[in-house]
Amino acid sequence: MTRRLLLSLLALALGAAAAAAQTEVRIDVSGGGRRIPLHCEPLAAAGDRNPKLPSTLADEVLASDLDQSAVFVVTRAWRGEQPFDVQAIVSGRWTVKGTEVTLTGEVRDFPARRPILSKEYRAPLAGWRAIVHQFADDVVLQFTGEPGIAGTRIAFVVREGRDKELCVMDADGANPVALTADRSLALSPSWSPDGSLLLFTSYRGGGGPRVWVMQAAGGRPYLVSGRPGNNTSAAYSPDGREIALTLSADGNSEIYVLDARGGSPRRLTDNRAIDTSPSWSPTGREIAFTSDRGGTPQVYVMERDGGNVRRLTYDVNYTDSPAWSPRGDRIAFVARTGSGFDLYVCRADGGDARLVVGGGSNENPHWSPDGRHLVFASNRDGGFALYVTDLDNRAPRKLDTGGRPAMSPAWAPRLAGLVTAQVSTPNHSNSGGKP
Questions:
Q1: 192 and 102 within one domain
Q2: Residues ≥6 apart with Cβ < 8 Å to 320
Q3: What is the Cα–Cα distance from 256 to 283, expressed in whole angstroms?
Q4: Residue 33: what pLDDT?
Q5: Cα–Cα distances in angstroms (integers) from residue 27 to residues 108, 116, 144, 271, 420, in the given order
Q6: Which end of the chain is more exposed for a tag (fewer CB within 10 A), N or C?
Q7: What is the structure's pLDDT at 314?
Q8: 168 with 285, same domain?
Q9: How many Cβ atoms sit within 10 Å of the Cβ of residue 49?
Q10: Domain for residue 253, yes or no?
């Protein structure tokens, strides 16, 4: 199916006589799912310090953010070469004054170079990456009506010897920060809806698997569920008021719901099989989970009260780790193969299951906030590491975790990880949102 993206904007006033005139700027993109060709020009460096090096780094990060948005295919200027066959030009100015940096970002159509977007961002120089990410996300917003995900974060687990510790990093793999140093096993991180908290399972303190919560910025963990047996796979409901998790306090692994503080347990499944890995739908009305009640592990869906249980997957065998997309229209899961697991995506009703990532063992998929990407763990290149697929024909890209084995990724909501920058918009520009 053909999709057309029409951006209608006012031209800059060129003089008193032309001030009242309006020019329509159109960018047409045909072809279902086709990326928009975009050209990045180097940011002009200025200021009272030599900004050449940081501006060059900003060029790299900006081009990478846009290319990895799954919206654009990006080219860059080399040796004065002129762009060819592109829809728009991204450029701007990078000004360093004292300990502050200002990014004036611009997007113009091509070849007329009429303005589409112009914004100014300011931040401490040490936080320069945040304003580059914010500009990239605003460019995505301008073309799609939804912000990008460059400014978000990913929680994950790294293995150090026998220990597994909880960490967070930027969505592009930069700025990794360790949140735990328990010399224990941390597993299965899950974000609160506002991105301020992280649930995770840990054996810290020498106990069995218990569910803990901590501030996403770090700090002391607090116990949420330490009931006898297993306490695993915890996930906040979309409104943040409840937590779905797996408990075996009654002797069998079942799905329960607790209040956000860990109290008022309510059992949802009651089956001799093993039920685990709950994943809320975006509406909070349904929960996907894994159960072997049919003989082998398969993905099932039930209502939030445990009723209307139905099997989701039939076309593939031995499935696990369901993850509901932010829009609620798709569910990602893994299916066992001879070498491990392949990554699949299907409709929310189980139909149209398709292979997304194969080769090696691919585990624990989680959606980006915009639903255009999946982060997952894989040993496709040797030891386990984190990868992102854009759900298109591009090969998954590997995230840098410092060479350490990494697993159990969880993508934060869009608001998490954003360093607030001062933003100003010149009066003559049209910015943000779908026109």
A1: no
A2: 277, 290, 297, 299, 333, 334, 336, 341
A3: 18
A4: 63
A5: 10, 10, 12, 55, 30
A6: N
A7: 85
A8: yes
A9: 15
A10: yes
Token pair of 116, please?
Answer: 């589409």
* Residues in the chain, overall count: 435
Give the ranges where 69-191 is alpha helix by DSSP (H): 128-144
In this structure, what are the phi and psi dihedrals at residue 426, rounded to the nearest 5 degrees?
-55, 145
Structure confidence by residue, pLDDT tens digits, 133-179: 999 999 999 999 999 999 999 999 999 999 999 999 999 999 999 99
CB atoms closer than 10 angstroms to residue 251 = 8
Co-location of 113 and 89 in the same domain: yes
Residues 169 and 123 in one domain: no
Cβ contact 152:369 at 8 Å: yes
* Token representation of residue 335: 């299916």
How far, in Å, CA of 184 to CA of 205, rounded? Answer: 8
Distance CA 192, CA 241 (A): 10
3-state secondary structure 109-126: ECCCCCEEEEEEEEEEHH
Closest CA relative to residue 247, chosen from 283, 211, 216, 290:
211
pLDDT in tens, 334-359: 999 888 999 999 999 999 999 999 99
Radius of gyration of the chain (CA): 24
Handedness of CA 399, 404, 405, 406 (dihedral sign): negative
- 264: which residues sit within 8 A by CB, 6+ positions away? 258
Our count of domains for the chain comes to 2
Structural contact between residues 247 and 226, judged by C-beta atoms closer than 8 angstroms = no
CA distances from 260 to 147, 182, 222, 242, 407 (A): 29, 24, 12, 5, 26
Q: Strand 44-47 vs strand 88-97: parallel, antiparallel, or unpaired?
A: parallel
Q: CA-CA distances (angstroms) from residue 385 to 6, 198, 394, 399, 402?
A: 39, 21, 18, 7, 10
Q: Is 176:156 a contact under the CB 8 Å cutoff? A: no
CA torsion sign for 365, 369, 373, 377 is: negative
Given the DSSP bridges, would you call strands 374-378 and 330-336 parallel, antiparallel or unpaired? Answer: unpaired
Burial of 142 (0-12, 13-18, 19+ CB in 10 A): buried
Q: Which two tokens stand for residue 287?
A: 């929960």
Amino acid in the structure at residue 209? P
Q: Are 403 and 384 in contact (CB under 8 A)?
A: no
Parent domain of 131 = 36-149
Measured CA to CA, the distance from residue 229 to residue 101 in angstroms comes to 53
